[in-house]
Amino acid sequence: MSSTIVRPRKPGAALRPTKVGSVQRPHYGTHIFLIIMAVVWLIPLGWAMFTALRPKADTDKYGYFSFGGSFNFENFVAAWNQGGFSKLLFNSAIIVVPTVILTLFFASMMAFAVSRFTWKLNITLLIMFTAGNLLPPQVLAAPLFEMFKHFELPYSVSGSGSLLNTYFAVIAVNTAFQVGFCTFVLSNYMKALPADMTEAAFVDGAGIWRQYWSIIMPLTRPALAALGTLEVIFIYNDFFWPLLFIQSGDMLPLTTGLNNLKGQFLSNYNLLAAGAIITVIPTLIIYLALQRQFVAGLTLGASKG
Amino acid sequence: MADTTLGAIAPARGVKSPGRLRRRYSMLTRRDKMVLAVMVAIPTLIQLIFIWIPTVLSILLSFVRWNGLAFSDIRPAGTANYEFVFKDYPPFIPALQHNILWLLFLAVIATPIGLLLAILLDQNIRGSRIYQSIFFAPVMLSLVLIGVIWQLFYSQNNGLLNFLLGTSGTPRAVDWFGDPNINIWAALIAATWRHAGYVMILYLAGLKGVDPALREAASLDGANAVQTFFRIVFPVMRPINIVIVVITIIESLRAFDIVYIINGGRNGLELISALVIQNLVGEGQVIGIGSALAVILLVVSLVPIVIYLSRTFKKEV
């Protein structure tokens, strides 16, 4: 407070970040710049929405850059039915739900073991886990593809006679990739939990599993919620692994299925735009509902503490 | 896989582990040791089977000739695959150049935009949260979807951009994603749309962590806003700066989805990651060539990964 008084009033002082309690000067220049940037930022999505809301006949008649004709949701209905979106979304759910649950489960076990106990190799393993998450997925594409292709299964189990074209392949590889990152974040989080909590449980004779499941896991809930939100988005957005492993079009998840939809709708931009907007909606819902969790997941550990 | 791309964001700092308070493994009962061993073994096996063994196999496969059918068809090839890639494979040099361009563009254009937005939004201005939501929204989208959305914007005859330029419907209308001289820049702008928002959110978190007393002290000493930022705030954010450098490098090596959805990574949009896949799928699988390209990608990626890991875990080993 006293610092506000002593602050020298000079030209340029308005630009200085004024934090607590001080009288704010209007930042006109900043606002104008930010408004321009925000408008520019919204143009691509806005244009897709604008195109999606107009019937093809009207855009053909008046041109895409015009306001003539009607606006309605018919393209969304048509894209939903012609693109088979219910199937694609269902397939995405089949991949996303088990992957996120398995990832958090395995990562929290591993993080618990490396952060709450001191043993040989624990840092080595943590480094290995973190490094694995940073590799470009394309490095692993050939061996994983061949491993799954040559892993023979009876045709009653898998239509392809191998692990190719199964959800198992996509879920397993996605889980392996994400476990590295989640272990790293969760181990940092668990390390910061006070040691006396589990220490007391030890004295009471609680086993390792109870310490993990009944003491540490409930305390880790904020981190798990943030990571869970982040991972749902990551896996839903994953394009590469289903592209590599899933061959039948009716098994593809939404993000990878867009590749086919793009070809199918290429002659009808209004449908393509509607399809794109439909694909945005699940992420938009999560974004609006859980924005704080998502941002917390992204910056977890990047801020102090 | 942006995501994934998004992996390395949390530097292990600030948290000083209470080492002496942590349980020593030797103090556990036998049953507890068994439980702990299982808890470590399952995730570790998953990592080995699906990440590290394939990485080693990728290196081995780069030294053989194979069409991917029977194992008995595998023939040793020495370094022939690498010689082919470096000497006789026309898309390789363009791909390498595009990867470097990708890195430079993200580093010189996208990252500073994100930093600038973060600095402006950190000033407690009115509507800061709304601006943040707008700039951050593309980070939620997959790069595939971004490719489709920008396709609508860039389209030669129906896209907004050519309408705004007044060239739509004329022979001068540019095919932004189709013209091999231009499409890499068009794709980079679309990628920037996402990357800048990501950088912004990380820097916003970083700026909140900067002690306000430092700025007060600087302003009392008569430093202006620009001086305060470059001499005090930016250096203090060093850990975040390193994370962002690493993310930018890794993102540019991983770039794949957006070029693949545009045209499969051909015709002006060659990237090493896309060449790997072109050699693995489709007609005439050449596993050896694809693997040689994958190993080149691996070796380059190891540089930022090792730098990042050695910085992050320095204190703990």
Can you put this structure into words, describing what you see?
The complex is a heterodimer of chains A (305) and B (317). With 305 residues, chain A is mainly α. Helix content of chain A is 69%, strand content 1%. Chain A folds into 2 domains: 28-72, no CATH class; 86-299, MetI-like fold. Chain A has helices spanning 2-6, 28-52, 56-62, 74-83, 85-116, 122-134, 141-149, 167-191, 196-203, 208-219, 221-237, 240-245, 254-264, 269-299, and one strand at residues 117-118. The longest helix of chain A is centred in the first third of the chain and has 32 residues, at 85-116. Chain A is globular, with a radius of gyration of 25 Å. Chain B is mainly alpha-helical. The radius of gyration of chain B is 24 Å and the shape is flat. A two-stranded antiparallel sheet of chain B has the order 2-3. Chain B has a domain at 92-269: MetI-like fold (Orthogonal Bundle). At the A-B interface, helix 2, helix 5, strand 1, helix 6 and helix 7 of A face helix 1, strand 1, helix 2, helix 4 and helix 5 of B. Strand 1 (117-118) of chain A pairs parallel with strand 1 (23-24) of chain B, so a sheet runs across the interface.
CATH topology of the domain at 92-269 in chain B: MetI-like fold
CATH topology value of the largest domain in chain A? MetI-like fold
Mean pLDDT of chain B: 86
Number of helices of chain A: 14
Q: Which class do the helix and strand fractions of chain A yield?
A: mainly alpha
Strand share of the residues of chain B? under 5%
Largest sheet of chain A: none
CATH class of the largest domain in chain A: Mainly Alpha
Q: Radius of gyration of chain B in whole Å, from Cα?
A: 24 Å
- Which consecutive residue ranges of chain A, at least 5 long each, have pLDDT under 50? 1-23, 301-305
* Quaternary state of the chains: heterodimer
Average residue pLDDT of chain A: 84
What overall geometry of chain A do the principal axes of the alpha carbons give?
Answer: globular
